[in-house]
Amino acid sequence: MPIWQKTIMLNFKDSYSLSNITTLQIGGPAKKFVTVKTEKDLIEAIEYAVSQKIPYLIIGAGSNLLVSDEGVNSLVIKNEISGISTWEEPKPISQVSVKSGTKLQDLVDYAIIHNLAGLQKLTKIPGTVGGAVYGNAGAYGQTISDHLISVTVLNPHSLTTEQFSNKDCNFGYRNSIFKKNKYIILEAKFQLEKGDLEKMQMEEKEITWKRFVKYPPGIKCPGSFFKNIIAETLPKEILDKIPPEKIVYGKLTAGALLEEVGAKGQSVDGIKIADYHANLFINSGTGTAKAFYNLAKAYTQKVKEKFGITLEPEVQLINLPPLR
Length: 324
Ligand SMILES: Cc1cc2nc3c(=O)[nH]c(=O)nc-3n(C[C@H](O)[C@H](O)[C@H](O)COP(=O)(O)OP(=O)(O)OC[C@H]3O[C@@H](n4cnc5c(N)ncnc54)[C@H](O)[C@@H]3O)c2cc1C
Hints:
Elements: H1 3-6, E1 13-17, E2 29-36, H2 39-52, E3 56-59, E4 65-67, E5 72-79, E6 84-88, E7 93-99, H3 104-113, E8 116-117, H4 129-134, E9 138-139, E10 142-143, E11 148-154, E12 161-165, H5 178-181, E13 184-194, H6 197-214, E14 229-230, H7 236-239, E15 247-248, E16 251-252, H8 254-260, E17 267-268, E18 271-273, E19 281-283, H9 289-307, E20 316-318
The structure holds flavin-adenine dinucleotide (FAD).
């Protein structure tokens, strides 16, 4: 059957503004845009892109993206393939399988309700499980990969599924093999241990409050923009200059360096750096990707000049040149 007949059920949109689906609310149009809710839809969407000879880009909740004002000449596929299932291994361990388009918060809530520990510190990170695995999302010393056993992926060349063990995923700080191989994450399996419900709920509540203060409701941002720096990777002469309190969970925070070069509170063309956090770049409402990019680049250079450290974006730049 020709591809245009097979994909008739999918609702492809033309020139769809990506500012609609990024938490930063910035981004020009995608040539084509489609939301998929099943793996079959996903494969059909990819086949459609191939048949039209246009590239495709899989996204989750758009909470870690800076998309250029010109948009992308691609099919953007928004992954909403969701579902969670669990089963008891020999007690007290439980395994949980999650489809990649599931909201990370749904997984965190599910784990807490089922008294399973290991994901509760990821509470209130917006985004999908697929996006979190792609970037090895983490917070407060916990990461999505800590209790992950395996990932089912779609090989984009053969359109067949493959299994990656935790080790195969090459997880690192905000990094995974999927940033290189561009395989599509379909499902992740976790092995969680029975936890202390009261302790988990306390942790969850505390973190929710901290996040509420840092990211008030309605804030237009992609989370922290730059990655922190793993302290042990820094040369001794640089490390010696850093006050120990600036190193958190073994990382020198990008915010501390940005603060030293006066980033806090700066504002240009609708993009503001938070008064209270130098690594938080916010769209005040009229911001553009260009203004965001230029501001980020200016502060990358200032940090480089003062500390000799090249900051790397944590946020994925779409159709924009590398910052350095
Ligand atoms: C207010 C706020 C707070 C945040 N706090 C944190 C935090 O504490 N810690 C943290 O780590 N992050 C944080 N983030 C960033 C972001 O929420 C995470 O990186 C999140 O995991 C991204 O998921 P997503 O579904 O939104 O991915 P998207 O932004 O949609 O995509 C990000 C990247 O993942 C790729 N991708 C998405 N889904 C798939 C898939 N199924 N297969 C293959 N590739 C895929 C995309 O191609 C893209 O390159 C925050 C963001 C915001 C807005």
